[in-house]
Design a protein that fits this description.
This protein is mostly helical. The chain has a domain at 80-150: Tetratricopeptide repeat domain (Serine Threonine Protein Phosphatase 5, Tetratricopeptide repeat), CATH 1.25.40.10. The chain is built from nine helices and no strands. The chain has helices at 3-17, 21-34, 42-51, 55-68, 73-85, 89-102, 107-119, 123-136, 140-146. It is elongated.
Length: 150
């Protein structure tokens, strides 16, 4: 990685930590363009777009990351969250299921999958997934009660 790319990445990280997401996105994109090995930071760009409530743009970035690295569970979980907020229940469920298949011990991804199934009135499937999530992380029980899943 070139020195300039390292400097740009540092600047992008600093901007992001200051909550200056628009500026950080531009800095990450510039760093990635100058050093393609930094493409993994596209997921960070997607998360910032998500925080800015630019869900469609975030979903596109998450899809791109998932296509480039189909073993990256985080990209599919992030895609599920974005699709959920875009009203694409079944696309969200499919993305969450992919995340769970890649990281079966990831309780939060299972919980998201359960939540998505409940929203789609797939109540039995939601219960099965929630039970699996709670078995992995019993602390999710309070959240499930709060979210009306239990």
């Amino acid at each position: 990685m070139e020195r300039d790319a390292t400097k740009l990445l540092g600047e992008a990280n600093a901007l992001a930590s200051q909550g200056r997401y628009e500026d950080a996105i531009a800095a990450y994109e510039t760093a990635i363009a100058s050093a393609p090995e930094l493409r993994g930071y596209r997921l960070v760009v997607g998360e910032m777009l998500f925080e800015l409530q630019r869900y469609e743009a975030a979903a596109l970035v998450f899809e791109e990351v998932a296509l480039e690295d189909p073993q990256r569970a985080q990209a599919f979980e992030a895609l599920a969250r974005a699709r959920q907020l875009l009203g694409d229940s079944f696309g969200a469920i499919a993305a969450a299921d992919r995340a769970v298949s890649l990281a079966p011990q990831w309780a939060d991804a299972l919980y998201l999958s359960a939540q998505l199934c409940a929203e789609a009135d797939m109540n039995e499937e939601a219960r099965v997934r929630l039970d699996r999530a709670l078995a992995l992380d019993p602390r999710l029980a309070a959240r499930a009660a709060e979210d009306g899943l239990r």
